[in-house]
Amino acid sequence: MADADLVTRSDDRGVTTLALDSPANRNALSAALVGELAERLREAGKDDAVRALVLTHTGGTFCAGADLKDPPDPDVLVGLLRGIVELGKPVVARVDGHVRAGGLGLLGACDMAAASARSSFAFTEVRIGVAPAVISMPLLPRLDPRAVGRYYLTGERFDAAEAARIGLVTVAGDDVDTAIEPLIGGLRKASPEALAETKKLLTVKVLETFDRDAESLTALSARLFGSAQAREGMTAFLERRDPAWVL
Prior knowledge:
The protein has 247 residues and is α/β, with parallel strands linked by helices. It contains ten helices and ten strands. The strands form two sheets. The protein has a six-stranded mixed β-sheet, sandwiched between helices.
């Protein structure tokens, strides 16, 4: 792979691993990374040798959310998330670090997710003056409503055990590779056609949400990111200070 690659690929016994590899910005969702990840997913989806995919990361952060210096277009982000949901092969997230904001949308789009005890999660959008708009499409149909209300509104950090309790991840354990092993082992024993058809059954409600809400939520995201409070929030974040509204 060239040095410029932001997503690396490896293959082992029918399972393709795609690793977010942009440690300089904590694997944030830049326009370049989103585009490259979408292309890698399309390539793997067309590869008959691929039974399933694992989405993971290098470094201590799975994904820090949108890259505030180079954010992806909301429509492009919708395309990436929908592409994971619609892919005819199961996608399993492997998390061994921190996940913030838009990075949680990736987890919601995946069919399963495993996380280590060292992982942490937070919907930090409200703290920089925006809302978890686009990522709500794969997340809200799958998460506990009371819990997601709390974490969306407060931006609190929570651990892997709580992420499993509310439905954000499938399994949590001290070691992520031990936790993910039965998931991958089960996929290797399954018929590729049966996996594809079963995934269609499981994603109906999520795709209905995309069909219904994509246009309004991308408009909301664009409006909020262009607002005065978002400019203050993002500036404060980059300057490592509290935004003006903090009491």
